[in-house]
Design a protein that fits this description.
Length: 442
């Protein structure tokens, strides 16, 4: 059957060439080329028809029901790149039955078609990988994943394998023989392209260990890099800083160095507040009955706390932590302890503070400026503007109520303080001096 088809094709081609006046010697020389050209032309036509059918079918499917991958395969002529693989398949199927196997021209055509076959597979595979990457990026489950890097790894592997196979075809050597000779080449490549290889390896480790994702807020100490990651590849990481500048970082910099990833804070849903004031040590004193009566008017919960702590003291119970009655951490022995108790109550009642996370008011090691007191808690939002608003509100409130506890934060003396001190020493009437500390005129 195959011989009959081949003879028929050759007879028809020779009749056509003789009819247009080609000599018999030329006919014997070019008949195989002409038949091969006809086969290639038929293969291209069949590919175009198949492409049109696939394009029509996929558009109908996407129109009825949205499939992300099918939508992405239609972009950037990706479907046509995939369809091109039909050309070498068709040529390989038709050439053996349309040409004589002992033709020298056929041998070179088969080599060219084999190379074209490999290239078509590479083009089709990279198009499919690109569509997969874009569809994964648009998927909410993978939107923050560095899919682009893994897609690049896949493309590089496909291209490397294709290059080895093409070289083996041209040299008529086994691919394993070529792979064995890559050892010496790799040693030279390590010296020439050390930075590129380090970037490639660092990028792969970065993606494999899930150290950075798209949208992560990262900060590199000692540098000006502080912002959101908006692009990750195997050779570069791009960060949009908060001042809208763009920084590019080689992946191996993140692997070899230290950086802060705030993803955990974002995923937890709570952002930490850890700020405080430094209280003047000479303002810390035992609570008097007058002070306790005054601060009871500030807050009903604080009034109940003072009453229960007073009752405990009368009964000989002085526990201030792990209190069996569930009282908050703090004391009524000093104004600083009483203020700590009030601050703890205020934070626990605040509607924008996480109750399921740590809430603590503590004093730190005294320093030359006084006794630092720190407010430690977590907000219910991680959004920057809202977080700063909550933090500012809390700090402003505590600054305003501290004088009621006869506590004052440390401030470095300025020129105004020097002038006021001089006026007071000169017996200037105190009621005529503006800007005196709270309660000075008492």
């Amino acid at each position: 059957m195959q011989a009959d088809v081949t003879d028929y094709m050759y007879d028809k081609v020779r009749e056509l060439l003789a009819h247009i006046g080609v000599s018999e010697s030329a006919i014997k020389q070019y008949d195989t080329l002409i038949i091969s050209a006809i086969v290639i032309a038929v293969s291209i036509v069949l590919m175009e028809i198949s492409y049109r059918i696939m394009l029509f079918a996929i558009k109908r499917i996407v129109k009825r029901k949205h499939y992300n991958f099918l939508s992405q395969i239609l972009k950037g002529r990706r479907l046509r790149k995939v369809a091109h693989i039909l050309v070498p398949i068709t040529i390989n199927a038709l050439l053996p039955i349309t040409t004589t196997p002992d033709s020298i021209v056929l041998h070179y055509i088969e080599i060219a078609v084999s190379i074209y076959y490999i290239i078509a597979i590479v083009v089709a595979t990279t198009a499919i990988l690109s569509a997969l990457g874009d569809s994964a990026f648009n998927n909410s489950k993978f939107h923050d994943r560095p899919v682009k890097g893994f897609i690049q790894v896949g493309k590089i592997i496909v291209i490397l394998v294709a290059v080895i196979v093409i070289i083996s075809i041209l040299t008529n050597k086994s691919p394993l023989y070529l792979i064995g000779g890559l050892g010496a080449f790799a040693a030279v490549l390590m010296l020439i392209a050390k930075d590129s290889i380090m970037g490639f390896v660092g990028g792969f480790l970065l993606l494999e260990n899930d150290m950075v994702r798209l949208g992560d807020w990262i900060e590199i100490p000692g540098t000006s890099i502080n912002g959101n990651v908006f692009d990750i590849s195997l050779t570069i990481v791009k960060v949009r800083n908060w001042d809208n500048t763009i920084a590019t970082i080689p992946p191996y910099t993140l692997i070899n160095g230290t950086f802060i990833n705030w993803r955990g804070m974002s995923e937890s849903g709570g952002r930490r507040i850890a700020r405080g004031y430094t209280i003047k040590l000479d303002n810390i004193r035992p609570c008097s009955e007058t002070m306790l009566r005054r601060v009871k008017k500030l807050d009903s919960e604080l009034a109940s706390y003072i009453s229960r702590k007073t009752e405990q003291a009368l009964n000989g119970k002085t526990a201030n932590t792990a209190n069996a009655e569930g009282l908050t951490n703090g004391t009524i022995d000093t104004n600083a302890g009483l203020f700590r108790a009030y601050a703890q109550m205020y934070l626990r009642r605040h509607p924008l503070i996480r109750k399921d996370m740590l809430i603590m008011v503590r004093t730190l090691e005294p320093n030359g400026n006084g006794l630092p007191i720190q407010f430690y808690c977590f907000t219910t939002t991680t959004e920057w503007v809202n977080y700063e608003s909550i933090q500012s509100e809390i700090m402003e409130h505590f600054a305003s109520v501290m004088p009621l506890f006869e506590l004052y934060p440390f401030q470095t003396a300025g020129s105004r303080d020097t002038v006021i001190s001089g006026l007071l020493e000169g017996q200037y009437p105190i009621e005529h001096i503006d800007g005196l500390p709270y309660k000075t005129m008492k």
